[in-house]
Amino acid sequence: MVSLSDGEWKIMNVLWESGGNTITELTGLLQEETGWDKHIIITMLNRMERKEAVGHKQGGRAKIFYPVVSRGEVSMRETRGFLEKVYRGSLGMMVNAMVEDQALSDEEIQELYAILEQAGKRNQNQDTVKRK
Hints:
Layout: H1 6-18, H2 23-34, H3 38-50, E1 54-59, E2 62-67, H4 71-87, H5 91-100, H6 106-131
Antiparallel strand pairs: 1-2
């Protein structure tokens, strides 16, 4: 599974949004936020190809780079890695830390309730299917 650096995330986010870009397009899209020139982007894309995060196809005069991995699969791996590294794999510890720091708004708390309610329903449905 692919692990991305912070800079690689910036490139991947652009590629996931667009579906594919040339080096010139990526440079233009990332220039203001990052200050990167095309040489930095080329180096990063080469590294990302070795990681099998991106691929390229010839598009006329320029290569078009595109994501090989989905945002969902990379996000889940990164989330699990963060949770394991910082909270020893405990989602409860992470949520408790957010509550203790008063970092959750009322809206976010309601969103968490809704997510947990959906997860509970999904688990009940799976249990029902397994018993049949």
